[in-house]
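Response to reviewer comment R2.3. The reviewers asked that we include at least one raw input/output pair. We reproduce the pair for DUF4355 domain-containing protein here without editing.
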Amino acid sequence: MENEENQENIEQNTEATKETKEQTKEKTEEKGKVTFTPEQQAVIEEMFSARFSREKKKSEAEKEEAAKLAEMNAQQKAEYERDQLQKQLDELLKKDRWNEMSKEANKMLKESGIASDDQVLGFVVQDTAEATQEAVKAFVDLVNTKAEEITRQKLSGTAPRVQTSPASNMTKESIMQIKDAAKRQKAMAENIHLFQ
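Raw output as returned:
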């Protein structure tokens, strides 16, 4: 019965499309402004046909889906709902496992002296406890290695040298015996305590 109605609708749509084409053609001819070459007319008709067939396929697919849902019995509907609930349960269990693993990873990182945030936890938390523990260990080793490298770089500089001037061992008499006046004045300035 539905097929007969669909067929009638399709025929009516086809007739309406033909009538619209004829009316458009008549109006175009009446105005005399727009004329199409046979190639252009063929392209336009092809576009109309393609659009009509797409809409027809879409309508048929929707009707098939509605018929399929209507044919589902109570058991099939219950199975569908059960599948949906199972998906939700699996997702919640996965989130719960991630939360538990992130707590353990956070605890291990704190024991190693590393502060953690969501980004670090996202990096180290894995599906299993063993994998998470290995990831945390690898992360801690990486952080410690980098910290040691940075410390070594900072400490690798040369120590400042303490300059001992020979003038500090000088006496007032040895300063006065310097013949060059500029050097003598410099030595006096460096050892001013001897002349006070």
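Helices lie at 2-31, 38-71, 74-111, 118-124, 129-155, 172-176, 181-190. Residues 85-154 form one domain. Further pairs are available on request from the corresponding author.
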